[in-house]
């Protein structure tokens, strides 16, 4: 799993943008994983876009994760599938995908994280760490909860929710090493530059933590 710099797509950021060109700019800037998450497209359109994204992410050595749609993830040979509490249960997803791909699972509380330790999932998406404008209905968790989630989880934590480049140091200092964002990259006109700033903040903070013996 290549989850360090994890970009998640969202319909509202692609009204006037070409999907492949935008994602390629993010990949060129250093994104290590792309989660394909759209709610307003047809299944056929998503499948056709995912086939092209699969080729693109392979070219850049990045992972492709599909949100919710296990069928599409399998059809295009994605690296992973991400599900939430309202989706197909993790046990059922594991039966379908076997060991062909990894499974991510969304958690919004420490109780969720504890329960997820017994589920057949490979990583946990935890948040919202900060307040966000990307989702209308979300649960605010905060940095203290993130710190505790990292401590109690045996599975890798991917933090999400309002994480802009300037907030990357905060989540890394909280112990999280996998950072997901939507607007922190897609919210800027120059996607490659925004990604590079995100990656720079990540690497510089990690270097500092290593020097302090806290990495």
Sequence of strands across the biggest β-sheet: 1-2-3-4-5-6-7-8
Q: What portion of residues is helical?
A: 40-55%
Biggest sheet architecture: 8 strands, parallel, barrel
SS elements, strand count: 8
Q: Which geometry do the CA atoms define?
A: globular
User: For the residues shown, what is the average pLDDT?
Assistant: 92
- Rounded radius of gyration (Å): 16 Å
The class by helix and strand makeup works out as alpha/beta
Total DSSP helices: 9
- What is the top-level CATH class? Alpha Beta
Roughly what fraction of the amino acids lie in strands?
15-25%
Q: Could you explain the architecture of this structure?
A:
This protein has 215 residues and is α/β, with parallel strands linked by helices. The protein has a single domain, classed as Alpha-Beta Barrel (TIM Barrel), CATH 3.20.20.70. The chain has 9 helices and 8 strands. It has helices spanning 19-29, 43-59, 70-76, 90-97, 110-116, 143-152, 168-173, 183-186, 191-211; strands at 5-8, 33-36, 63-67, 80-83, 102-107, 123-126, 157-159, 178-181. An 8-stranded parallel β-barrel has the order 1-2-3-4-5-6-7-8, surrounded by 7 helices. Helix 1 (19-29) runs parallel beside helix 2. The model has no long low-confidence stretch (mean pLDDT 92).
